[in-house]
Amino acid sequence: MYPIQRTAPVFLVTASLLLGCPSGEPAPPTPEEHPCAEVWGETPASGRVHVSPSGDADGDGTLDSPFSTVDAGLEATRAGTIRQIALDAGTLSGTYLLHSDFGDTGLQLVGCGSAETFLDATGSGSPAIEVGGADTADVLIRDLALVGGRRSFQVSGGAGMLGPIVMQGVDVLDSVRVGVLIDGFATRVDLYDVLVQDIGNEGGNYGWGISIQTGRQLSAAFEYPVVLRQVTVEGAEGIGILVDGAWVDFEDVTVAGTASSGQVLGRGLQLQNWSMGYITGLRSEENSDAAVFLEKPGRPDLDAPDGPPVAVELFDSFLGPTSGASIPGEPSSAADGLTATQIDDGGGLYGAETFRVVLDGTDLGGNERAHALIEAITMQVGSNNVFGKGAAWPIAVQGDGFVEAIGGGAPAQAVSELVAGDALGINRALLSLDDVVAD
Asked: What is the pTM of this model?
């Protein structure tokens, strides 16, 4: 039993006393005595309803008589002003669509812990939880596990624009195709303390861990980033985390054990299509082809077109070891720590100054080919990076790429400038998303 730390809300205690109990039977537990009380926290001012796998079909949503399904909990919150559904330990099967059209703005779906409460969508072909609608805001999903489902947690259509959709203390397990999908212009999601694990490929194609595709490649400056804090992706197939046309803010993110799948190489983190990002404390290891792959990193600053471009910045991270990916009918791919390119055979559609990556305080090790491969972009590199032994090229630059120290001048690390005849090949760089939500 959890230690008692809170005073039970008066209205719940009073309700328990008024219900009474038959002679000789123990009184039902008060809220602070319930095993999930500490995780649920204090009852919000708007109230909460309870759902339990052992609940009665005729339950009324109180602690003593919980609903037996999440759908019944949603029906109750949508009928009034209650904004929280508290889920007991155990497994609840189903799939759930949250939308402002149903009155779900501000809704909190709170479990008893990611090792205790499970929402199981196995075999459904649908997300376990889907959040949509540009007016849907301030939704919180926390302290539970999502099991199975296709794109197990999906947020799209601008949901979160008026207040972020937040996932906290959640495990996403054994889903198909994508574990977490964040899709659409202005869609805003924050992930805190999230584990995405074992994402199966679909039809031999891919099983991405997290896909962030907010579709603003050439638009004006972003208003806010997609935030990941203490997020781990393990055992994805094809790509661990994919960022397309987005702004991201990562801290303490781990991507490990991504396998190649079909024609997709198994990279840890891939940012493409003018994405920008501030990334600190990334750990990308035991992936294939590249720990981090950047295609057109950053973008011109559209608010200050004469100023320096907005960059992808990597601080205090660990990149490697990597291995070569095996693609049917093709030679094995490279094993690089950081690859940054414009993807057009080295020439560059734009000058190298248009795109920029900053690397500082980062360890690179166990990468067979290059710790950093820079092609047709600019990299600013700090003096306190650690380039491990074993790579053929600690830093390789080609195709009019440029490497300099942060603040200008020559970098502290040795740089190998490769001409066209010596240039390193880059396999299958850009991924086509092919409207992943619609199919």
From this structure: 0.90
